[in-house]
Structures are given as C-alpha cells and as structure tokens.
Amino acid sequence: MSYIEELVGLLGSERVTTNPTVLEHHSHDESYHTPHLPEVVVFPQTAEEVSKIMKFANEKRIAVTPFGMGSSLEGHVIPYKGGISMDFSLMNQVLEVRPQDFLVRVQPGVTRMQLNKELKKHGLFFSVDPGADATVGGMAATNASGTTSVRYGVMRDNVRDLEVVLADGRIIRTGSMTAKSSSGYHLTGLFVGSEGTLGAFTELTLRVYGIPEATMAARASFPTVQDAVNTVVDILSAGIPVARIELVDERSIRQVNLFKETDYPESPTLFIEFHGSEQSLQHDIEFAQGIAGEHGCTQFLFETDSKARAQLWDARHNMAYAFVHKSPGKKMMVTDVCVPFSELADAIVNAREAIDRSGLDGAILGHVGDGNYHVILMIDLNDKDEVARADKLNAHLVEYALQRGGTCTGEHGVGIGKMKYQRKEHGAALDVMQSFKQVLDPNGILNPGKIFG
C-alpha cells in the first residue's frame, strides 16, 4: 500500500487528493520562483488530524509543506521535496472573540478580511494589513506586517499564543492570553516567522484593537523621492501618531493611473492615514500638512469619507497587481529590504539610482514609516540577461541594507529567495537557529529547503 493510501485511511478519500489541478495549485506561490508539484495534498480539519499526519510523515520521512492562500512572495509554500502539501483552508473558523481582553482565537485558515468582518460586529479590528487577503496562519509563519505596522506593530507583536503541532506530532501551546509574561522562553516569538520549518500552526490567539472614532486619509505629492522621505522622517520625529504612511514613486503612480484609470499626479507620493478622535485628527492633519509644505509638497489632499478613503488605499494595495496585469508574459520580482530609519532617505535614493543603472523597468514603494521599502520589477524569466540584471539589482539592494545595519527582508520572509543572505546577516546566530531546527525537526520533514537550504 502506498503512503497516499495510508493518508486516505487517516483522513478519508475526500480530503486527500492527487488531482493534477489541485497539485498544480499547490506547486507555486505569487513569486517568480520555479514551481514544483507536491505528491499529494491533504486538508485537515482539526489539530488532532494534523498531529496524525505529522506522526505518519515523520515515521516515513515524508516532507510536509504547510499551505494557506499561496500569496507568499519568496517561495515559502513551494514543495521542492515533493511529499505532502498540507492545506489549511478547511480550518477557517473564528473560534472566540474576547472583546474585553482585546483578543480573538482563530484557526490558521481564517483570512484577514474574514477576520475583520467578524470583528467589526464587536467594534474591533485586526491591525496587520499586508495587502493580500492572506490567511492569519501564513501571516504568522512569515511574520507579515504591511501598511499599519508603523502604528500597531508587525505580526510578532500581535500574536499572544499559538497552538503548534511539532514534527513528531506533539501539540503544544507557546503563550497565554495575558498582556505580558516573564515565564520561560518566548516560544511564540520563535515560532512566528519560522515559515513552517519548526511546526504547523493549528490555532492562534491574536491581539485586536478598537475601531477608531475617526479616520482620515491624505495623499501628498512631492518633486523628489528624497523630499517625500524627509517628510516622513519629520512627521514621525514630531510624534504625529500616523496609522499608515506609504511611499509610492512616480513610476508606480503612472502604473496605477494606467491600471485603475485614475489621474493622480505622476510624482513621488505619500499615502498617509490618521486614526483618533475628530478633534485630534484635525490638529494632526494640519501639522503634517505644514511639515510636507516645508519639503516642497506640491499637492496635499485628505479624505474623511470612507468610500473616498477606500479608493485611495485601493490604489496603493493594487500596486503589484497593476504591474502584473499590464505586463503580460512577465513575472514580478519584489525586493524587500528594511534599514534603520536614519538610513532610509539615502537608501531609497540609492535604490532609484541602481534601478536606472540596471536598465530595468522598476518602481519603488513601501512602508516607509518603519524603514521597509520594496522595488517592483517585471522580468521575462526566459530572458537570461534580464534575469541576471534583476538578480544583480536585488543583491545590490540587500548588500546596501546589510552594510547599514538593516535586514534582507522586512516582511516577506526568507523562503528560498533570501537564503543566500542568512549567514551574512546573522553570522554565528544562524547556527543557533539551525540547532533549534535540529531539535524540533531532526528528520528534516518540515518545509525542507527553506531558510537554511
């Protein structure tokens, strides 16, 4: 009997499949990395079923790759060792909302939009917003962040507790529901960002927030990228409590106008959002507008209407898709570096110069409120010269960031795309990470080939 037949015995034939279309769907994410088919896809519904699958796979030395929505950008869910792709789409329940504790318990297959729809009934929202409607399990696995991290923090800041199934099938909990604890090692922080290499998440307890009384969004245009970045630095230095502050360069704005049929000025632009009371927001907006004016701001518009705000942020969130849909035959490469805030302005100027030298069509955008920025490149994977130039540009951006105390990835994660930079970034600490991996997954079945190679 093949191991796939044994899996059918564990879950039933309706939740174990080798259907070619399903295998293909689980062979890739949204990145440019080469796809690879799993041998089988399984759909567990409980932690106990995940435990059974893990025990079985560990005994048989079969690779297991967790799969959420497939929206990752560094090849995290590509099963390069074949084996089992474990799809969590059937574990998609919001288990408990605790409004007085500002907590929610969810299964890993719950998506960000699904969660916020449920939380809205309680006057709450989950803050981490990477743009894509990713699963919260996948967001925790990559330590996702996004547009709101400048105010509310990244995924690691908002996960209180995890239920994790280890490679040998043990089910553990890593934290608690309390706001703080000094008891033992911080296992939650270890597992968040581990990309499925240490265990599979089957439940998450997340921190949530009250929906603010008022929200305002602003769009500010500038003559140069440096003017825009200097404005960000001064706004944050002044202590203005912005909820989001995003940079989009002129090339990105041009693409949005083409894709969305908008008419935004094609110049470096900041998208800003403020959360608070009506009275405080008016002061914050005026203060921010004054700072922007000092840096040559050519247009400063703000919106309080929810529909207008949504349209404004829709332009930002659809940036990547604007490039994808208007670049037939090409794949998107998105770089993802983060630098100390004091290095941000020079880093973005350097990135623009590097793009221009490369001869590639590239755009810069990012969550500049926390030093994280991206370069979007659309490349023809069949053009070896173009691929080589893109790789060289990506390497330059990473090296620049590392030399200035930054990191090779601010939010997308390591996957396979950033493995080659791990030793340079972490030094001997990478050996410590590998020792954790060896202890928790001695047979190397969990998402093999990721982070460590």
From TrEMBL:
It holds the Pfam family FAD-oxidase_C. It is an enzyme of class 1 (oxidoreductase). Keywords: FAD, Flavoprotein, Oxidoreductase, Transit peptide. Its EC number is 1.1.2.4. It comes from the Bacteria. SUPFAM superfamilies: FAD-binding/transporter-associated domain-like, FAD-linked oxidases, C-terminal domain. Residues 33-211 form the FAD-binding PCMH-type domain. The keyword Disulfide bond does not apply. Signal peptide: none annotated. One of its GO terms (biological process) is lactate catabolic process. The keyword Hydrolase does not apply. Its cofactor is FAD. GO terms for molecular function: D-lactate dehydrogenase (cytochrome) activity; D-lactate dehydrogenase (NAD+) activity; FAD binding. Belongs to the FAD-binding oxidoreductase/transferase type 4 family. PANTHER family: D-LACTATE DEHYDROGENASE, D-LACTATE DEHYDROGENASE, MITOCHONDRIAL-RELATED. This is D-lactate dehydrogenase (cytochrome). The lineage of its organism: Bacteria, Bacillati, Bacillota, Bacilli, Bacillales.
